[in-house]
Design a protein that fits this description.
Largest sheet: 5 strands, mixed
Helix content: 55-70%
Protein name: Glycosyltransferase RgtA/B/C/D-like domain-containing protein
Organism: Gluconacetobacter diazotrophicus (Acetobacter diazotrophicus)
Keywords: Membrane, Transmembrane, Transmembrane helix
Shape: globular
Structural class: mainly alpha
Number of strands: 5
Strand content: under 5%
Length: about 475
């Protein structure tokens, strides 16, 4: 079997494993908050061309553009696209270093390494619940590879490819912005010492200018449309701990509490990626410097986010540790290959064992569904969406807060959205036959957004409006219906 055929067989096996896991999750009722957001975003933007202000971000990210390009080909089956992108994208990531690893440790060792990475709980979560975010992880891996090539040989193609991957990374995931900023102080590690000493400014200009220009363009577009830049630094998954109990967005206040969470992030990094942390601490030779720069960037990124008071939870950056792991597998010295394989095998058992401990896995989330236990996620949102779908009359709701309801509706043809400007919402609401609202005081640190309609009209949830009667109450949701 040729190396290409062997890599193709491995890809099919890994993709089948990820696909089977995703199918099991769907069968047991698990659905990712990230996937629901992608489906809702496509539905809103495909129908309302000027909905950027309503959703709070610009439709220029690569997952959104890819979803929009492929969804018309699938028609009503388009909700499977995030899962396809997640499975295929993560499988390509796991298989990307196979040719180089195979030359070093043979087919048996390569198979063992691929199996260990594919069984990693965080990698598996990303493949089955991350949706189009796998594009961002793949591009970050590309940045890591080309950063190492820049160190090994000052190849012009490596500089160009690093820049293109950096630009794509910024356009693929909001969490990419802190990672790119955190890489700035460590990126000189990727250059040879003589080059850094003689021409440090030139090295920064070559490697960072395209990324910096893209970042400035994103910030300007975001500021010109919304007046602030926060949407480009939003959390990866806005769900309230639906996957793991420590997967929750931190409040912007309380620096000491947020710093404690940084220590928890480092703990999770050791638990789920012990080989990355262990071998980065052993980096002494010059050839290990770019790898060390990558690891230090990922450790610095959450610190930067925490200090700036931006939304954050550990699951934002844990998946990115798969990239330095794959780089390490390619660059490890012959004397350390057996040790790397041993630690990686041990990490699979440690990671799944940690999730089996009481308190580490949610009682209604990803871990239980993967084990075959039915879960009931977003049951209220599903019933509200079904109720709206069965009516022919229009419904007013906030797409920023109720994206899950929109995803379960499956279409937005009869949905009405409030204006994006907060002052306009406080005025006269757009005419609609139904009003969907949640309590105005339902905001907490774990909610991605709050209902702007209910906040601007505090009495609406409890009392409705004149000539409206209560038509549905499901959980925290209420739908007021205009009396004909």
């Amino acid at each position: 079997m040729t190396p290409r055929a062997y890599a193709a067989v491995l890809f099919l096996l890994v993709a089948f494993w990820f696909g089977a896991a995703a199918f099991t999750l769907l069968q047991e009722g698990y659905v990712s908050d990230s996937v629901l957001r992608e489906i809702s975003t496509y539905l809103v933007f495909s129908t309302h061309a000027t909905a950027a202000r309503d959703l709070g971000f610009l439709p220029i990210s690569l997952p959104v553009l890819g979803y929009g390009a492929l969804a018309p080909l699938l028609g009503p089956l388009h909700p499977v696209l995030p899962y396809v992108l997640g499975v295929v994208g993560t499988a390509l990531l796991v298989l990307a270093p196979v040719p180089s690893i195979q030359r070093q440790i043979g087919r048996a060792g390569t198979l063992l390494m691929v199996v260990c990475v594919a069984l990693n709980p965080i990698v598996l979560w990303f493949a089955t619940a991350g949706g189009g975010k796998s594009i961002a992880l793949f591009l970050f891996y590309g940045m890591c590879v080309f950063l190492c090539r820049i160190h090994d040989r000052h190849d012009l193609n490596a500089y160009v490819k690093f820049a293109f991957c950096g630009v794509g990374f910024l356009l693929a995931d909001p969490t990419a912005t802190p990672v790119c900023l955190a890489m700035l102080p460590w990126i000189p590690f990727a250059a040879r010492p003589a080059f850094v000493v003689t021409q440090p400014l030139a090295f920064y200009l070559i490697t960072c200018t395209p990324v910096a220009m893209t970042l400035c363009a994103l910030v300007y577009l975001n500021w010109s449309v919304f007046g602030y830049v926060a949407p480009f630094v939003t959390p990866l998954n806005g769900g309230p701990g639906q996957d793991f109990p420590w997967n929750r967005v931190l409040p912007t206040a309380g620096l000491s509490y947020r710093m404690a969470e940084l220590l928890r992030f480092l703990l999770y990094a050791v638990v789920f990626f012990p080989s990355v942390v262990m071998f980065s601490g052993l980096a002494r030779a010059s050839r290990d410097m770019p790898y060390l720069a990558i690891v230090l960037s990922l450790i610095t990124a959450p610190f930067l986010v925490l200090v700036c008071g931006l939304p954050y939870h550990p699951l934002d950056y844990l998946p990115y540790l798969a990239a330095p792991l794959l780089v390490l597998a390619q660059r490890v010295t012959p004397s350390r290959r057996i040790a790397l394989l041993g630690v990686q095998i041990l990490s699979v058992g440690v990671g799944w064992g940690a999730l089996a401990l009481p308190g580490w896995s949610s009682g209604h989330g990803w871990t239980e569904a993967l084990g075959g236990t039915p879960v009931a996620l977003y049951r209220d949102e599903m019933k509200v969406g079904q109720w709206i779908t069965q009516r022919d009359r229009t419904t007013l709701l906030d797409p920023l807060a109720h994206y899950r309801v929109i995803a379960f509706c499956g279409h937005v043809g009869k949905l009405v959205f409030p204006p994006g400007d907060a002052g306009a919402i406080q005025g006269r609401l757009p005419a609609a036959d139904h009003l969907l609202v949640t309590p105005p005081d339902s905001s907490d640190a774990q909610d991605a957004q709050v209902d702007r309609i209910s906040q601007s009209h505090p009495d609406l949830w409890a009392d409705g409006l004149p000539h409206y009667s209560l038509a549905l109450e499901q959980g925290a949701y209420r739908i007021w219906e205009r009396v004909r």
